[in-house]
């Protein structure tokens, strides 16, 4: 029996920005290390439909692209598949060239076929030389007339290790427009739906998916496959835990495919992830990569790991992400030919075998942040690896226009990182986690960011109270964090600062608009290091502790910073600053508050010392409580109580 591992596909929508992810331009030129396209034969007009394309006479089209090359190293390493077949259907006179690469990105041609007329070419290939990395792809070169590419398939006659379908779990909070688009994409991809048992939309908002005008047609198109479940906002972890729990009751589902709501999917990628999961030698979590929804050729996440000593997540080759496929193609980027092993995958797109769920339980009740990383670390300790599979991806709103480290999410960043460290860190006393967390507090305080410092202290107090707080505060921690913002003036985003200054002329806060001093500061100096860092930190802390801000500076900001210039080593020089919001929607005013600074600094020192002293006992406490925090029974009680 033939099993299709991957179909060659072209974009669902006519977006020229994403064309390089499917079709490779003929000629690239490199300038100062950056790939710049100077001649491209791949145009939107060449795409005839989802599976067909035109190669103009005398031109060459390469399929050495993210979505259409075959990630051979991953298939060799994680599955028992050792032979595959490439089937290419063409119309016209052309040359078919098949290439491979190794882990260093070195290209080798392995097959050449001359074809003419209506042709079907089958190329049998072995997966035995891709231990360290490597892809397989093909190029088509048209002769004197246009050639039509009619289809391309990567397949095998070997049998998968397991069968079964997947249920999809989409967690959403007031993003119904994205959800209906995802559901419509699935309706338009019947070969994907063949692999789907149920689609669970966990709707936690008041802007309901089933209230959209498109919903009746979508419900009719998906029939009993679609199930919309409403519940209070329990965060991503509450939504995905519900999807896992519902899938446990589906005997035909061998996997649960988790999807974020604010995404745009590539349906073929969903199908590939399920197929790969079936072929893995042992049950394996299969994650997808993340492209930027607002800058679609840019890849933000390839393989992500958690460094144990600081217990912090990061990308492998962090300095090379994001990668812009519009500027540098697959063949120009040796790093992308390596097989990269991940510790975890974001739950924007992640396929989890139900064997894993049955053995290790559901999501930690974390609300948001670190729930995906903690789950994959927990799975890894139980013997279930995580693979971030090339060719499997979606588009997600990136974090570049956000600054969730200083909004209400600051609570969850620190609380969940510390809890995950208590559960999984192998380094005594969490390594440098506590020291790093204390430094983050100091940076916030030097930047006059008292709101996130307040939330971080609340998070540490909750951690110190023991694991029972996680379920107890699941539906209250976020509202409490957001409510606290009203006590901190810096959280207000001013849409029109000049208008506010004019309207408050003569009042205490903005009495004298000193426009000459409200200039945009662009300081090109870099952050201090070594002994200079120690001196700078000491001087800044002493200044905030002893210095009394000038009253005029409390009324009107001294200077204005662009978001990218508002660094922790620049802002402490001033009593008040005007800083652009991360999304560019307005500006925030940061003002020195000596009394609050003193209170929060002392509190931070005390809490971090307490955490350090109690680390070993807390780790034992949280690890003992973990089964009860992630069990289906515990989550079922939560959902019953929150109907």
TrEMBL record:
Signal peptide span: none
One GO MF term attached to the UniProt entry: glycosyltransferase activity
Domain Galactofuranosyltransferase GlfT2 N-terminal stretches: 40-157
Pathway given in the UniProt record: Cell wall biogenesis; cell wall polysaccharide biosynthesis
Recorded superkingdom: Bacteria
UniProt-recorded name of the protein: Glycosyltransferase family 2 protein
Keywords: Glycosyltransferase, Transferase
Homology family: Belongs to the glycosyltransferase 2 family.
Pfam families named among the record's database cross-references: GlfT2_domain3 (PF19320), Glft2_N (PF17994), Glyco_tranf_2_3 (PF13641)
Positions of the Galactofuranosyltransferase-2 C-terminal domain: 433-640
């Amino acid at each position: 029996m033939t099993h299709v591992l991957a179909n060659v596909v072209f974009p669902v929508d006519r977006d020229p920005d994403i064309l390089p992810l499917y079709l490779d331009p003929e000629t690239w030129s490199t300038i100062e290390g950056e790939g710049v396209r100077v001649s491209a034969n791949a145009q939107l007009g060449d795409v005839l439909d989802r599976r067909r394309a035109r190669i103009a006479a005398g031109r060459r089209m390469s399929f050495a692209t993210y979505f259409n090359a075959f990630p051979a190293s991953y298939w060799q390493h994680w599955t028992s598949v050792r032979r595959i077949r490439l089937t290419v259907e063409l119309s016209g006179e052309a040359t078919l060239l098949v290439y491979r690469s190794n882990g260093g990105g070195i290209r080798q041609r392995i097959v050449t076929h001359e074809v003419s007329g209506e042709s079907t070419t089958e190329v049998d290939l072995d997966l035995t030389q891709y231990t360290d990395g490597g892809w397989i792809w093909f190029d088509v070169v048209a002769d004197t007339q246009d050639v039509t590419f009619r289809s391309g398939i990567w397949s095998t006659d070997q049998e998968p290790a397991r069968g079964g379908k997947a249920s999809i779990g989409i967690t959403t909070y007031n993003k119904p427009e994205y959800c209906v688009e995802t559901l419509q994409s699935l309706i338009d991809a019947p070969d994907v739906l063949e692999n789907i048992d149920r689609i669970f939309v966990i709707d936690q908002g008041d802007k309901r998916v089933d209230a959209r005008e498109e919903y009746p047609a979508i419900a009719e198109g998906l029939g009993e496959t679609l199930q919309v479940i409403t519940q209070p906002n329990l965060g991503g972890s509450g939504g995905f835990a519900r999807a896992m729990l519902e899938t446990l009751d589906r005997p035909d589902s061998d996997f649960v495919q988790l999807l974020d709501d604010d995404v745009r999917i590539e349906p073929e990628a969903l199908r590939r992830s399920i197929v790969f999961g079936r072929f893995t030698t042992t049950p394996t979590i299969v994650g997808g990569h993340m492209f930027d929804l607002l800058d679609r050729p840019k890849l933000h996440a390839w393989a992500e790991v958690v460094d144990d000593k600081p217990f912090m997540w990061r990308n492998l080759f962090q300095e090379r992400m994001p990668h812009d496929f519009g500027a540098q193609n697959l063949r120009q980027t040796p790093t992308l030919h390596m097989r990269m092993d991940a510790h975890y995958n974001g739950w924007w797109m992640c396929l989890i075998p139900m064997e894993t769920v049955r053995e290790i339980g559901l999501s930690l009740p974390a609300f948001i942040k670190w729930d995906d990383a903690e789950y994959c670390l927990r799975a890894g300790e139980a013997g279930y690896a995580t693979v971030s599979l090339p060719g499997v991806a979606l588009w997600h709103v990136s974090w570049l226009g956000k600054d969730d480290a200083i909004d209400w999410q600051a609570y969850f960043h620190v609380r969940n990182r510390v809890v995950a460290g208590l559960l999984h860190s192998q380094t005594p006393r969490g390594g440098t986690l506590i020291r790093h967390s204390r430094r983050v507090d100091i940076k916030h305080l030097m930047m006059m960011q008292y709101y996130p410092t307040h939330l971080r202290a609340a998070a540490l107090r909750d951690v110190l109270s023991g694991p029972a707080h996680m379920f107890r505060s699941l539906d209250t921690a976020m509202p409490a964090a957001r409510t606290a913002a009203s006590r901190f003036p810096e959280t207000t985003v001013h849409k029109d600062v000049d208008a506010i200054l004019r309207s408050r002329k003569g009042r205490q806060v903005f009495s004298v608009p000193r426009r000459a001093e409200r200039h945009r500061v662009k300081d090109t100096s870099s952050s201090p290091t070594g002994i200079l860092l120690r001196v700078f930190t000491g001087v800044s802390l002493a200044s905030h502790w002893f210095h009394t801000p000038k009253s005029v500076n409390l009324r009107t900001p001294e200077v204005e910073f662009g978001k990218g210039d508002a660094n922790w080593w620049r802002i402490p020089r001033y009593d008040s600053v005007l800083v652009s919001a991360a999304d560019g929607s307005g500006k925030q005013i940061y003002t020195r508050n000596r009394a609050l600074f003193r209170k929060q600094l002392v509190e931070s020192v005390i809490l971090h010392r307490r955490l350090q002293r109690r680390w070993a006992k807390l780790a034992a406490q949280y690890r003992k409580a973990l089964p009860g925090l992630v069990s289906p029974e515990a989550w079922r009680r939560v959902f019953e109580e929150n109907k």
